[in-house]
Amino acid sequence: MINRQSRKDTRKLRIVLSTWGSTGDVQPFLALSDRLLKQGHKVRVCTSEIYRDRFTERGVDFYPVGAPFDLDRLDQAMDAIVQIKNPLQSAILIVKEGILYEADQPYWGCTLRKIGVAPKPLHRQDMTPKRLAKRINQVISSQSMPEKAKALMEKIEMEDGLTTAVRLIEAHATKMCPDHHCTS
Question: Model pTM?
Fold first, then answer.
């Protein structure tokens, strides 16, 4: 449990956040940096150059990292996939377009399978339209996955992840930097 000290007692921290990915990966860091700024902390975000304006227009320091990627191509491919009603057609597009499969996807795939809301993860190197369609059909035909997914959704709706994240950052920084060298 985090010690919920009063706002007056919270030191103003210098915080660096780093993220990489598509808009869906970066979006939570916009909200988190906004909240941290509101709490009076100095925030710098390190991510792809294509997101610079989204952070700097909010008053967040920005530092570009990694090679730029074609966000428009990724967003177009994802929009096309969402609109396809046939799982096999979605699978073909994913394989054809080479949709990104990186970072935390293997972790979340295994985690979601473990709690019963997803099939066995399909690794990029093993992906074919037939295999992807099989996984999609496993989800569609499952009786337990939708029930478990609904229960998970209800738990997630009850969470205030943003407030929890800010409290965790403040608590960790206070513990790790007792001599105030992390403060402005």
Answer: 0.55
